[in-house]
Design brief:
Layout (H helix, E strand, L loop, with lengths): L3 E7 L3 E7 L6 E8 L4 H14 L2 E8 L9 H14 L6 E5 L3 H11 L4 H4 L3 H18 L5
Parallel strand pairs: 1-4, 4-5
Antiparallel strand pairs: 1-2, 2-3
Helix pairs in contact: 1-2, 3-5
Amino acid sequence: MEKRIIAFDIGDKRIGIAASDPFNTFALPGTTYFRTKSAQTDAEKLAEIVREKDAGLIVCGLPVNFDGTESVQTEKTKRFVELLKTKTDVPIVFEDERFTTMEAERVLIEGGVRRENRKQSIDSIAASYILEGYLNKKKKGEQK
């Protein structure tokens, strides 16, 4: 059996976490990690989660502008992923995360989740959409 794939939706304040099922066919929203003031600590904690989940691949959402160009957030995410690479030897790939947070918010609103409670799960749902996008491409043979 393949190892699970884990996905991170990396934000300035929170990081959404999702993982694949044991057969890597679908994405399951996990928890939301609330960032500390230390990127080192955050990267170490994520590496710990990767070990706990026994993941064989990490998929990180790459925030780009609607037209596909890079933004300040793209650079912040890439810098954090470089730091994460020093904490784990699990391969890391990027997946376009355009619209994932908007889609997660829409699902929560439709589900009747109150605005103040959405922060608890919006990032992990967005991470599951990032992972779902990766898994769909993998099924179609677009990813290894």
